[in-house]
Specification:
About 50% of the residues lie in helices and about 10% in strands. The protein is of the alpha/beta class. The protein has three domains: about 10-125, Response regulator (Rossmann fold); about 145-315, Rossmann fold (3-Layer(aba) Sandwich), CATH 3.40.50.300; about 325-415 and about 430-480, Helicase, Ruva Protein, domain 3 (Orthogonal Bundle), CATH 1.10.8.60.
């Protein structure tokens, strides 16, 4: 029964006449376009005329050998997958070729089913790569370029560093609190690099189930574990020729840290259940909100891995240290959500910016984006006002504005009768709150508003659920003992 697959353009080269005739019949029967060549020289000529999705070539051919054909493929078409057919006497050469980037190899005598299985894996990898690139294009169209919004001195420094390191091929460690825009910086590095034509593959190490992290990063062979029903390329393979962004690298399990280190040092990976390494050409950008140095001291993170990923470091300032960027950020998020907004339109009232400036922003830019999205849902017509802000931001400011408009008598009555806004102590006697206290207060107030729902609280604050649990654990540890 004919298998219906997406057609691929295949170049097949082998000096055995019987195999040539078989492939001329069977490859089209499998739904592919086939060019069958009797030797390596003919294959090189075919490569000069057109491009192929997959090149299958005999390693041992007189004159121009299979490795020369593969070398030409790399020079002319980096996206083309290559497969080697070899006899047992040349098995070592085939393994070496796989280490250098050949997709797979087959040993003679090979069955048609073996060739069909390899082509199916090639097809799936190409489809996955195509979907990722299409998704990247849609994201870029939706979000625009990797623009860092703001003009503060801290952000200008980040821009300069991104431009400088982007042109290199160094591994980069991006540091910053949750929600500061670490993935945006990684995208800027990728877009400013010679790898911009290749894929940018992003993965949050903290969001992957621990038992699947290895498979997700490095791939697996069919039957490697329960549920591994087919061969699967890992994210390192998918990012080949481009950039792999490992967000929250501090959450990577300790056993996987050694595998990542080997991959970075050697440029080789091994799929789970496979003994043969695969060579990949990937630039790695890592990010973390944690102190990796403290994790090294606690034995939770490998020091040699820290040195390897931290060839170049970029630290993103939190939003509370760049409050002067708030007006530009608010304007950006409003116009992104409502692109029809006139260029000269006022997007928010002055008291909105005053209220936003007083907030500690534990969730940083991500939290601000959520606040503006919330406000726009309630706002039929710009500009935004205090009544459109979430309760945690607008309630106190709204009461203050009402008091100011009502006169002294009304003010005295509201202050006297208010159970939720007690008179604050004089400014000179009030002890400043630490950043830790501000964070904890925001978390506890969020939990109270959401009746203990941690997932909803984390989403509201713009932090991950794992981060919320870590903060609550810290709060429990610091609580006084009765």
């Amino acid at each position: 029964m004919k298998q219906h697959v997406k057609p691929m353009r295949i170049l097949f080269a082998d000096d055995e006449t019987s195999i040539q005739e078989l492939m001329r019949i069977e490859l089209p029967r499998l739904g592919h376009e086939a060019t069958v060549c009797p030797d390596g020289r003919t294959a090189l000529a075919a490569l000069d005329r057109t491009s192929y999705d997959c090149v299958i070539v005999d390693l041992d051919m007189p004159g121009v050998g299979g490795l020369e054909v593969i070398s030409r493929v790399r020079e002319t078409s980096a996206d083309t997958e290559t497969v080697i057919i070899t006899g047992k006497s040349s098995l070592e050469s085939a393994v070496t070729a796989v280490r250098q980037g050949v997709f797979d190899y087959l040993t003679k005598p090979c069955k048609l089913a073996d060739i069909q299985a390899v082509l199916e894996r090639v097809r799936k990898k190409r489809e996955l790569t195509s979907r990722l690139r299409a998704l990247e294009r849609r994201v870029r169209r939706a979000e625009g370029t990797s623009q860092l919004v703001g003009a503060s001195s801290g952000l200008e420094r980040v821009r300069r560093l991104v431009a400088r390191v982007g042109a290199s091929d160094s591994n980069v460690l991006v540091r910053g609190e949750t929600g500061t825009g670490k993935e945006l910086v990684a995208r800027g590095i990728h877009e400013g690099s010679p790898r911009v034509a290749g894929p940018l593959v992003a993965v949050n190490c903290g969001a992957l189930p621990e038992h699947l992290v290895e498979s997700e990063l490095f791939g697996h062979r069919k039957g490697a574990f329960t549920g591994a029903d087919e061969h699967r390329a890992g994210l390192f393979e998918v990012a080949d020729g481009g950039t792999l962004f490992l967000d929250e690298i501090g959450e990577l399990p300790k056993p996987l840290q050694s595998r990542l280190l080997r991959a970075l040092e050697s440029g080789e990976i091994r799929r789970v259940g496979d003994n043969q390494p695969i060579t990949v050409n990937v630039r790695v950008v890592c990010a973390t909100h944690r102190s990796l140095e403290e994790m090294v001291a606690a034995g939770e993170f490998r020091e040699d891995l820290l040195f390897r990923i931290n060839t170049f470091e970029i630290a993103i300032p939190p939003l509370r240290e760049r409050i002067e960027d708030l007006p530009e950020l608010v304007d950006y998020f409003v116009r992104k959500a409502r692109p029809q907004t006139p260029p000269d339109a006022v997007v928010a009232m002055p008291e909105v910016f005053e209220t936003l400036a007083r907030h500690p922003w534990p969730g940083n830019i991500r939290e601000l984006a959520n606040v503006i999205e919330h406000a726009l849902v309630l706002c039929d017509e710009l500009p935004l006002s205090l009544e459109h802000l979430p309760a945690r931001l607008g309630a106190v400011a709204s009461r203050a504005a009402f008091v100011a408009k009502s006169g002294d008598g009304a003010a005295a009555e509201i202050v006297t009768n208010s159970a939720v806004a007690p008179t604050a102590p004089p400014a000179q006697s009030r002890k400043p709150e630490s950043l830790r206290d501000l964070e904890m207060r925001a978390i506890l107030e969020g939990l109270e508003r959401n009746r203990g729902n941690k997932a909803r609280t984390a989403e509201e604050l713009g932090i991950s659920l794992k981060t919320l649990y870590n903060k609550l654990h810290q709060l429990q540890e610091s609580a006084p003992v009765a």
